[in-house]
Specification:
Elements (H helix, E strand, L loop, with lengths): L5 E6 L6 H12 L2 E4 L1 H13 L7 H10 L13 H10 L3 H16 L7 E6 L2 H5 L5 E6 L2 H14 L6 H17 L12 E4 L5 H17 L1
Parallel strand pairs: 1-3, 1-4, 2-3, 4-5
Helix pairs in contact: 1-9, 2-3, 2-4, 3-5, 7-8
The structure holds 2'-deoxycytidine-5'-monophosphate.
2'-deoxycytidine-5'-monophosphate binds next to helix 2, helix 4 and helix 8.
C-alpha cells in the first residue's frame, strides 16, 4: 500500500443499500466514511430553517458555503422533507462546487488513524474521486427500494404509504440522474452490484472481495 489514501467510491440511488455497505466496508477495512448525501441534506436543512426556497440558487449556494462537519449528524437530516429539498439543491452547480472541496479534502486527508476512506453518494466515482481505487455502483429495483425505505420509516415511527414512498424515490431518481451537473451515472470503470435479491451481508461479502483484491494490488 502506498502512502496515498486508499479510496472506495460508492454511488447509487436512494435506498439501494449503498449507505449500509459504505459504513460496514469502512469498519471492516479500517477506513473513514463520508456519507456525502449529508452535505446536500445539511444544505437543504439550512435553507428550510431560513424559510427560503431550495430552488433559489442564491439561498442554496449561501447555505452550502455554511456547511461544516458539525452539521452532519443532525437527526433532522433524515427527514423526508429534507431529503426532497436536498435533491433540489443538489441540482444547483454552485452548490455542488461549494461542497466539492469538503469531499475531496476528506478523501485526501481521512481522519487519523484511517488509511483511506469510503465515500458514498451519486457522483463520487465520476466527479469527486475519479481516481478512486475501487468504484462500486449499488442499485436495486425501485419497488424493492421503496419497500426498504417504507420499513425504515415505519421502524422510526413515521406513518408512510408505499405508493407515496415509491413516487418520491422515482422523483429523486429522475432529478438526480437528469440534472446537467454531475448527474448520477454508472462510471465506466465501476462494478455494479444489484442488491434487489441480496441481503446486506451478501452485499458486504461481494464488495469486500473487490476491496481486498484492490488492496492486494
Ligand atoms: O443519499 P441521500 O439520499 O442522502 O442524498 C440526498 C440527496 O443529495 C439526493 O437526492 C441527491 C443528492 N446527492 C448528490 O447529488 N450527490 C451526492 N454525492 C450525494 C447526494
Amino acid at each position: 500500500m502506498t502512502s496515498r489514501p486508499f479510496i472506495v467510491a460508492i454511488d447509487g440511488p436512494a435506498a439501494s443499500g449503498k449507505g449500509t455497505l459504505a459504513r460496514r466496508l469502512a469498519e471492516r477495512f479500517g477506513l473513514a466514511h463520508l456519507d456525502t448525501g449529508t452535505l446536500y441534506r445539511a444544505t437543504a436543512l439550512l435553507v428550510l430553517e431560513d424559510n427560503a426556497d431550495p430552488a433559489d440558487p442564491v439561498a442554496a449556494t449561501a447555505a452550502a458555503r455554511r456547511v461544516d462537519q458539525s452539521l452532519l449528524s443532525d437527526p433532522l437530516l433524515r427527514d423526508e422533507r429534507v431529503a426532497h429539498a436536498a435533491s433540489v439543491v443538489a441540482a444547483n452547480p454552485e452548490v455542488r462546487q461549494a461542497l466539492l472541496d469538503f469531499q475531496r479534502n476528506f478523501a485526501a486527508h481521512p481522519p487519523v488513524p484511517a488509511r483511506g476512506a469510503v465515500l458514498d453518494g451519486r457522483d463520487i466515482g465520476s466527479v469527486v474521486c475519479p481516481a478512486a481505487d475501487v468504484k462500486l455502483f449499488v442499485t436495486a429495483d425501485p419497488e424493492v427500494r421503496a419497500l426498504r425505505r417504507l420499513a425504515e420509516l415505519q421502524a422510526s415511527g413515521v406513518a408512510a404509504i408505499y405508493s407515496d414512498v415509491l413516487q418520491e424515490l422515482e422523483y429523486r431518481d429522475t432529478r438526480d440522474a437528469g440534472r446537467g451537473t454531475a448527474p448520477m451515472v454508472v462510471p465506466p470503470d465501476a462494478v455494479v452490484i444489484n442488491t434487489t435479491a441480496l441481503d446486506a451481508d451478501a452485499v458486504l461479502e461481494r464488495a469486500s472481495d473487490i476491496v481486498s483484491r484492490a488492496i492486494a494490488g
